[in-house]
Amino acid sequence: MNTKRSTLYVAQAGVIAAVYIVLTVIAAGFDLASGAIQVRFSEALTVLPYFTPAAIPGLIIGCLLSNLLTGCALPDIIFGTLATAIGAFGTYALRKYRFLAPVPPILSNALIIPFVLRYAYGIPGSIPFFMATVGAGEVIACGIFGLILLHALLPVRSIFSSLTTVGIRQ
């Protein structure tokens, strides 16, 4: 991997991580970033692996640091980051199917985060209820805002194209 591409890859991952953190902190300020009903605006960024593999480490690092900065419980830091990682890799795997880009993060968060809410935070309620509420928040964040972001970036996707052969190959 040449130095120019390596630098671009790291820079894109870093910018994505920083934007994820800022959006999560803003959502936390409105009490939307955690709990049984949550809409993390930052989750819209989980469609970015559609454009570049640099988004994968950016999302993972952004989620990890966001969870640390917003005072999440250790299981949330671990499993929340894992859910975002699974979603990011899944989006990258489905990059040939634009409208499926938000499905992996929606599913991974709807299946993993309810257990965190119930067992790490002791929030009263059933796992199926939490799956519905977390899933609804993810549909809003990833399915609606994420697809809006994806379609807004389509005309300028060439800024990401120089990374298609960097890191994770297509």
Name a few traits of the molecule.
170 residues, mainly alpha, Arp2/3 complex 21 kDa subunit ARPC3, globular, disordered C terminus
Your description of this structure?
With 170 residues, the chain is mainly α. It has a single domain (3-161), classed as Arp2/3 complex 21 kDa subunit ARPC3 (Orthogonal Bundle), CATH 1.10.1760. 65% of the residues lie in helices and 0% in strands. It has six helices and no strands. The protein starts with a helix and ends in a 9-residue tail after the last helix.
Q: How many distinct beta strands?
A: 0
The helix tally amounts to 6
Low-confidence runs: 164-170
Helix and strand pattern: HHHHHH
Write down the Rg.
15 Å
Strand residues, percent: under 5%
Q: Determine the mean pLDDT.
A: 89
Identify the CATH class. Mainly Alpha
CATH second-level architecture: Orthogonal Bundle
Global structural class: mainly alpha
The largest sheet is: none
What is the share of helical residues? Answer: 55-70%
Distance between the termini: 15 Å
Shape: globular
* CATH topology term: Arp2/3 complex 21 kDa subunit ARPC3
Give the domain tally: 1
Kindly summarize this structure in a few lines.
The longest helix is centred in the N-terminal third of the chain and has 27 residues, at 3-29.
